[in-house]
Design a protein that fits this description.
Number of helices: 10
Order of helices and strands: HHEEEEEHEHEEEHHEEEEEHEHHEEH
Radius of gyration: 23 Å
Strand content: 15-25%
Distance between the termini: 20 Å
Structural class: alpha+beta
Number of strands: 17
Length: 362
């Protein structure tokens, strides 16, 4: 079983599915998947901008397994070709091996050894923060009640994680000579910094908030730029930040508070550029009911349940659409997006055999 998984993983890693540059088409890796899913009805859809999905269905399943095939770009720190799988000792090394082509390889190996009902949704846009594939799938009359989304969870079912929101803010000021007394209040950069100071204090005040083992609000100011030079008052500034709320925290309320910290005369725009819901999705009562439903499903399938995690996954999109959803896959998130990314062979073996058990005919 493990050798079959590694053979598939070697092939999957060899396909360049880096995102960006979002240059993924309907051939290549999708041709490979189609060729290795005999007996499945396969539909490939191009959603544009490198977003391609493949839905493979055998029989009449009510559960769909989702795996994204796109990867982050390879950094210059890789010690060898990132698209050539290396198996050394107890690990398989390659771009996407951990996040999350190892799960795709496990599903292919399991499908070949089983005959039960099965449905796989492979996508290529998860790393772009532009979930066209999942949104298009959920907009169809798909007929599924449950979703298992593959991400590196150390072969444990993860029932809860944070949401995510990214924001672009633009500030305006009054250009002038920096020797003037007005420099302190007229600079767009100063307005951005004052906003950041209040935002950080507010985030610290939420450290007591808790849900399912997670605490507080995750927040980061990722970029501030603007101005011209040290002796000129900055007429414009741009700030990008993101936050990751608990399932119990309202993104709308958080945006209202954070936007309110900006000085009205200085704030030119406040634009949310991406939002992903928390897992489970919904208000606090609905989220807890969905978490319990996902826990019951994981128990029914005989899967160990892991702790809630801080990273975001597309399982939340399935949850928001009403499916019982959790995250399950091989590997450690600490290895994702790293140079010489790797997944433990033992993890691949555990997850592939679990897939096989779940796909066996009753």
């Amino acid at each position: 079983m493990l050798q079959d998984v590694l053979n598939h993983l070697e092939a999957l890693v060899s396909f360049d599915t880096r995102n960006p540059p979002r240059a993924i088409g309907t051939g290549g890796i999708f041709d490979y998947l189609r060729a290795n899913l005999p007996g499945f009805a396969v539909t490939v859809t191009d959603h544009g901008a490198g977003a391609v999905s493949l839905l493979a269905v055998r029989g009449a399943p009510k559960r769909v397994f989702n795996v994204h095939l796109d990867t982050v770009p390879a950094s210059p720190a890789w010690s060898a070709d990132p698209h050539v799988l290396r198996v050394t000792g107890d690990r398989a090394i390659g771009l996407g091996a951990c996040d999350i082509k190892g799960a795709a390889a496990g599903l292919l190996a399991a499908a070949a050894r089983t005959t039960g009902d099965a449905a796989f949704l492979f996508t290529s846009d998860e790393e772009a923060n532009d979930a066209r594939c999942i949104a298009a799938f959920l907009a169809t009359d798909h007929g599924f009640d449950e979703a298992i989304v593959a991400e590196p969870t150390m072969a444990e079912a993860v029932l809860a994680h944070r949401g995510i929101s990214s924001v672009l803010m633009q500030f305006t000021g009054q250009a002038g000579h920096a020797s003037g007394a007005q420099a302190r209040t007229a600079s767009a950069l100063h307005a951005a910094i004052r906003w950041g100071d209040q935002a950080l204090d507010y985030v610290a005040s939420l450290d007591h908030a808790r849900f399912g083992g997670l605490t507080g609000l995750r927040f980061n100011i990722g970029r501030i730029e603007g101005g011209i030079k040290a002796n000129m008052i900055a007429p414009r500034a741009e700030l990008r930040f993101g936050f990751r709320p608990l399932p119990s925290q309202s993104p709308a309320e958080l945006h209202a508070r954070l936007r309110g910290f900006a000085e009205p005369a200085a704030l030119a725009s406040y634009e949310e550029t991406f939002r992903g819901p928390s897992l489970p999705a919904g208000d606090i009562a609905d989220a807890e009911a969905k978490r319990l439903a996902a826990r019951d499903l994981a128990d029914e399938l005989g899967l160990p349940i892991g702790n809630a995690v801080d990273f975001w996954t597309e399982a939340s999109l399935f949850s928001a659409a009403g499916l019982a959803a959790f995250v399950y896959g091989p590997g450690d998130i600490a290895q994702a997006h790293t140079a010489d990314e790797w997944v433990a062979l033992g993890q691949l073996d555990i997850v592939a055999n679990t897939y096989r058990r779940l796909l066996e005919a009753p």
